[in-house]
Amino acid sequence: MKYICTTIINLSVEKTVRLWTDEDHFDEWQDGFESIELLDGEKHAVGSKSKIIIKQGKRKLELIETIISNNLPTEKKALYEHIHMSNTQTTRFERISDSRTRFTSEVEYTKFNGFMPKLMAKLFSGMFQKQSQKWMDQFKEFAEGVQWS
Q1: Is residue 4 part of a domain?
Q2: What single string gives the DSSP state of each residue in 6-51?
Q3: Sequence-distant (≥ 6) Cβ neighbours of residue 133 within 8 angstroms
Q4: Residue 2 counted as domain residue
Q5: Which InterPro entries does the protein's record reference (predicted)?
Q6: What pLDDT sits at residue 76?
Q7: What pLDDT score was predicted for residue 36?
Q8: Domains in the chain: how many in total?
Q9: N vs C: which end of the chain shows fewer Cβ within 10 Å?
Q10: Crossing angle (nearest 10°) for helices 125-145 and 115-123
């Protein structure tokens, strides 16, 4: 399963990327975000691993993020592994003008483990894209609301 989400943010690429990589603000635009903890390597470096905890209802999802490439402010690619599924996400930031940035996320689910995750992927594939787009739209609202001095 593969999909692409995109939005336009009314900020420069530099400001957009600075906010997008600032872990102190993840909870302001990612529903359920609880924590991120560096497990191995140097933060944001290729090969580094982090544990991400996201709360969904009463459940907590634990994801392991492995950085595949990091060419920010242009692009970052990471692998996200969960007990039930794995996916890669390539995030791109493209300068439209000095104050506008195209924010694109390309997600490809590469593995589903177990009957229920496979069934959900088949029956509710749009749910995955909808969640990604929701976080992107929430990031846009957050980023455009930041007061810069």
Answers
A1: no
A2: EEEESS-HHHHHHHHT-GGGGGGTSTTEEEEEEEESSTTSTT-EEE
A3: 5, 7
A4: no
A5: START-like_dom_sf
A6: 98
A7: 96
A8: 1
A9: C
A10: 70
